[in-house]
Amino acid sequence: MTALTEGLHLARLSLNPYSQEARDDLKERGSLHRRIQALFPDQLGSEPRAAARILFRLEHTDQAATVIIQSSIPINRNALPSGYTNTDVEYRDLTPLLDWASTGRIVQYRIDAYPARAVRAPHEPGVARPRGKRVPLLGQDAVDWWHRQATLAGLQPHVVLDLEQPAVTANRDSGKRLTYRVTRFEGTATVTDPDTLQEALRQGIGQGRAFGLGLLSIAPRRT
User: What is the CATH number of the domain that holds 132?
Assistant: First the structure.
């Protein structure tokens, strides 16, 4: 099944603030990542997140925390701990939306992303070139980064609202601790390349996708 014909599903989990498991997962994104991976089959190979196109985003309101999970196969809600959510899990098949998002359509979008650029140390002759260190971008630099990414993703942004979010921290299995400076971009855009847009929706954008960044969500523009 090719990227442009496979299904795409969305699940919305409203977390129960009285669930100890949910509270623990909210403290550290590595824990939430492992919880979400456990909602999918074990037989997905060495890179299960990529195999099932798993992306997620954590959204907070004054009353609740919600996890939005997008994947090419539906989640197994029976794998959630008892009492983990305070309402039934909401499901949505995104196929009609993907079919609708043709060239010229105007959409609303949202993404939590890690805008960054690589800064390389001076190269000494005869010494292997070191990997560049990624430096987070803020303010107008972050907005410019998003304009470039959106264009590459088949969108022409019209309105860009950039909202800095709490930093995301995650402990990797190796013990290394990662920190991402997060910016939420939302606004309106015109679809310029539907195939490229579909691939960006499935793959995600930028770094930190295992930890809740990079999920691009679109919807028809509200009038």
Answer: 3.30.70.1210
